[in-house]
User: Fold this.
Amino acid sequence: MSEVGIYEAMSTLRAVRRLRPDPVPDDVLHRVLEAATWAPTGANTQPWRVVVVKDADRKAQLGELYHRGWSRYSDNHRARLAELPENMQEREGRILAAGDYLADHYGESPVLAVFCFKPENMAITDIKLDRVSVVGGGSIYPAVENLLLACRAEGLGCTLTTLLCGYEPRVKEILGIPEDWGTACTIPIGYPVGGGHGPIKRKPVEKLSYLDHWANPYGG
Amino acid sequence: MSEVGIYEAMSTLRAVRRLRPDPVPDDVLHRVLEAATWAPTGANTQPWRVVVVKDADRKAQLGELYHRGWSRYSDNHRARLAELPENMQEREGRILAAGDYLADHYGESPVLAVFCFKPENMAITDIKLDRVSVVGGGSIYPAVENLLLACRAEGLGCTLTTLLCGYEPRVKEILGIPEDWGTACTIPIGYPVGGGHGPIKRKPVEKLSYLDHWANPYGG
Assistant:
């Protein structure tokens, strides 16, 4: 069996929010987890761990929390929908509907992969700056992206969610995560209800890049 | 030309710290940057930008800052080397030597890709928690990982560095980065001096994963 090409996988990785309840075979899940282990981390310390949640009761508890977080976020968002131009209303409405579906079925996802990290094992070079820190994420989210790309390669749907971080103390209780570890994101994983991955909509290089100086758009 | 497979690319992506001065062709660099644009971001806002630095003078200024940061870090590290067991001393010594090489030549890298982000455009769900925040990184480092994997596919060496964040105000001045943007990491990119990418050493799935609860190692 030949592998999915790297560019093909990256350019067709969508946020798949509608998952079938069918279980994910152990060997497939192992490949996806192994892909995460390959990612670079600061000084190769690999300061992340992942709790693979398959237990129905624990998933249901996480799903309830997610639903609460999503309702808060989406109520807000929905209230502003009417102010958007008509073509954007339709697009945003579709995204909200997919988000609603995910929130209603979050706890029934075949797998919830909860990524954790230990700040103490990280050299966080932006921790003293007068802005929110992100550098700890540099030793976590490359592994998460590897896992997402591997899901894409295996035909599994997935999406990167961070709403559960808002309920971290409760999530840590449910999964027995130690005091000195944090949670970075949760990835619902399963086979897609619909077409799954496919074409994506992104800004082009020229809108996201500069050459040598911020005044100088790349390729401009 | 057939693409590098996704698993092959991920499992052979090394931190390549010795780069040749040869320039990176524009079309190759464009593919690598495009790979970054494909990554998922929270609500698809793509709140990151990248400054592609090729200008010799600006690279030299960044290189000087990096060298300062590396010296501080590595002096510390070197001082503790003697306390390690002999086999680890050798390994750590090799890593330090590669780091020294990178620091001595940082400013001569053909390309320095400086990733920036705008906190205001992010929903940072862990910002109020009693620990360092990482979630902003969830909308940056997946793009960085895509760029690294694309470098691997193109035969380019690269490594994720965050030391320059410690000099962020000066870096922003050099590159004209606006007040309300932060810097997340810098990737030196170029063709490798030696073999470049290849086998990597990582902890296995069983050391990094749990099933359902932290008390229960995955596959254990």
Q: What stands out?
A: The longest helix of chain B spans residues 56-81. Chain B has one domain: 6-208. Chain B touches chain A through 95 residues (CB under 8 Å). The helical segments of chain B are 6-11, 26-37, 56-81, 86-105, 141-154, 168-175, 205-208.
